[in-house]
Amino acid sequence: MELFDLPVELFQCVVRYLVRDVGPLYVADYRLVCRLFAIEIQNEILAKQPLVAYSQEERRLPAREPIHVATARDDARFTKLFAQHGGTIIGHEVLRDQKNPLPLVKHLKVLTETVLRLKDSESRKLRRTYTFDISNAISGVYQKQLRWRISLRTSSEIADPSIEDDLPAALAATGNVKLLLELASTRANCLTKSGSSLPDPLSAAAASGQVETVKMLADHILQETKANPSTAIRTTTMDLGDALKFAIRKGQMQTGVLISDRLYKARGREMLSHRLTMECLQYLDTGLLRRVLIDNQRVLLKLPQPRDYGTFNQKLTLRVYEMDQLFTKGSRSMLRAFLRDGLIDANHFDSLSDLDQACYDATTPLALAVHHHRYDLARVLIQHGAHIDGVPRTGNPVTALWHAARDGYIGCSDAPHPGVRFLLKHGADPDIHGDWRSPLRAAEKRWPDVYFILQQAKDFGVDVALHPDTWRRYELVVKIPMQVDLTDSIPSLSELIDD
Q: SMART domains from the xrefs (predicted)?
């Protein structure tokens, strides 16, 4: 019987066991099997997995990788998942009946009930809505801090979160402006102060998409600034900048635009240009990145804010730090946005500022992506027309495979030299031109293992060169050089398969 012929209940059990064995952060790789698999896996991850499964103690690190590499990959997966779906995951955990909930979950339950009590309501629908709003607010905090809080098993490990401290942010996240103003009339600075586990009210409202609350709080900050100009940079620019980062992480376009408009004229806006760009590049494209780049450029030149960003057609230029961040920590969504808006050509760097253009004249976007081991970005570039054997317009006319062969990065997986393998798999020529520009010549006297893979690709084809037995036979040659002849170690692909 085929897997998809199973009854629905049995199929769901299979998916549940898969998630348990692989781990919720890694099972998403199986979503591409089919649409049914994707639906069941997403439902299992977002609604059914206990929150403790995402804690640091429950990491499922691959044994074949060094611990620091595996940990970095695991943290990156956690950051990406909780930026997009953290509010849903935490919200379902808070709504779930449990005898001994995690301290964070217990705190959020009490906080939600406190808001409902102030609202004088016992509606189940409203309780569910408020739970997800508050969960969205807390899922927007710095991801390492969030994961640390999830990992806490008892309150004795840290001082208990305070309902009194978190209540203003909870009211802002749920859009209760009237109750928030009543609370502010009796408690000084509660509209700008961060809570014990939740962020400040403006950031909480931005993360939860509460447009009217964001308007009120942002205008309040601006009024406080006029009353006390000496604290303008601290209370206005930094507070608005932090709130904008929450909107960026949670993909809240409306609240992000509102904050961005007020931040443009704030004193010291240029100080946040780098931080805001870095924040945008790591998450899904919602249109805020283009707005941030336009503001960065115009603030630097002391130009007025555009009236209509949609019809703004002035050419944008990128700086070196923005390009570096894109190819090291940037998301595929943001690279697609750069390609769509013409900020990057798939084959050349054309939109850098004049001062920075020289830094990338001698390379191509594909070569840079492979150099940083961002093969996901390299695939996006190829999908958008990057030539696998393309060369830069200036500098040495060499391909991305030439750079990868010369670097000799062996990696830490069962398939060494991932950059070389990736480019060969996508059709790169191992001996293009046949002279010093050839990747074979680049590796000949530097990296014997790279030279071997490239030579096999040239003589027998890519299928043979990348076959697992090819590397095993090469290792045998290296360990016992007198017993094995390198020239006849890989006669044909059919013999490799037959073995």
A: ANK
Distances in Å between the Cα of 198 and the Cα atoms of 165, 175, 242, 311 are 9, 15, 13, 37
Write the CA distances from 160 to 153, 156, 237, integer angstroms.
12, 8, 31
The whole-angstrom separation of Cα 469 and Cα 15 is 33
Amino acid at position 255, single letter: T
Which one is predicted more confidently, 452 or 158? Answer: 452
Beta-bridged to residue 318, according to DSSP, are 352
- Angle, alpha carbons 51-57-58 (nearest 5°): 60
Element (H, E) at 275: helix 273-281
3-state class (DSSP) for residue 193: coil
In the block, residue with structure tokens 């996901």: 376
Chain centroid offset of residue 412 CA: 22
CA 33 to mean position of chain CA atoms: 22
Question: Can you read off the two tokens belonging to residue 187?
Answer: 């408690």
Crossing angle of the two packed helices 332-340 and 320-329, in degrees rounded to 10 = 130
Helix ranges, 236-360 (H): 239-249, 253-264, 273-281, 288-300, 320-329, 332-340, 354-360
Give the pTM.
Answer: 0.83
CA–CA gap between residue 398 and residue 436 (Å, rounded): 9
Contact 357, 394 (CB under 8 A): no
The predicted-structure confidence for 454-492, as pLDDT tens digits, reads as follows 999 999 999 988 888 888 888 777 654 434 444 444 334
Residue count of the chain: 499
| Percentage of the chain exceeding pLDDT 90 | 33
